[in-house]
UniProtKB/TrEMBL annotation:
InterPro entries, per the entry: 2Fe-2S-bd, 2Fe-2S-bd_dom_sf, 2Fe-2S_ferredoxin-like_sf, 2Fe-2S_ferredoxin-type, 2Fe2S_fd_BS, Beta-grasp_dom_sf, Diverse_Oxidoreductases
Coiled coil: none
Name of the protein this chain belongs to: (2Fe-2S)-binding protein
Region forming the signal peptide: none
Organism: Rhodocytophaga aerolata
PANTHER family: BLR6218 PROTEIN (PTHR44379:SF2), OXIDOREDUCTASE WITH IRON-SULFUR SUBUNIT (PTHR44379)
Pfam families, alphabetized: Fer2, Fer2_2
Matches recorded under CDD domains: fer2
Ranges where the 2Fe-2S ferredoxin-type domain occurs: 1-75
Keywords: 2Fe-2S, Iron, Iron-sulfur, Metal-binding, Oxidoreductase
């Protein structure tokens, strides 16, 4: 099976039912996307599939087909995505385990809603769990990234 991740095609010899997360981490060796629950409940494995946030632990390889997969490594070539900058400015991570999933969920939100309200951020990020409880900083960073993207586009 051939899948496209971060703009590059990878041929993967594996069971079509294998979760996409396994392909990303164990075959392609991109380790930014994390395994948390394996049940679609924590959001640590969030990647984009054709720009939509999905939980890669619940997507079988056979469902990927020609769709474009983007992982945290492909969000920006040099780590300068507004979210990556605001994440640093707001000192968001504590242990860091869930943060790639958080950023990918936030990036999908800002793509569909570039100027979300605080409530909209909270709702959109609701399913991404953080065991350190960095939720307030996550919300602040998402709002800050939205503002900075808005001010650079004006
Ligand atoms: Fe996929 Fe938890 S590891 S949602």
């Amino acid at each position: 099976m051939t899948i496209t991740v971060n703009g590059k095609a990878y041929h993967i010899e594996a069971d079509p039912q294998m979760p996409l997360l396994w392909a990303i981490r164990d075959f392609i060796k991109l380790k930014g996307t994390k395994y948390g629950c394996g049940l679609g409940q924590c959001g640590a494995c969030t990647v984009h599939m054709n720009g939509q946030a999905v939980r890669s632990c619940t997507i079988p390889l056979s469902a990927v087909g020609q769709k474009e997969i983007t992982t945290i490594e492909g969000l920006s070539a040099d780590g300068t995505h507004p979210l990556q900058q605001s994440w640093q400015a707001c000192n968001v991570p504590q242990c860091g385990f869930c943060q790639a999933g958080q950023i990918m969920a936030a990036a999908a939100l800002l793509k569909s809603n570039p100027s979300p309200s605080e409530e909209e951020v909270r709702q959109a990020m609701n399913g991404n769990l953080c065991r350190c409880g960095t939720y307030l900083r996550i919300c602040k960073a998402v709002l800050q990234a939205a503002q900075s993207a808005e001010s650079t586009s004006n």
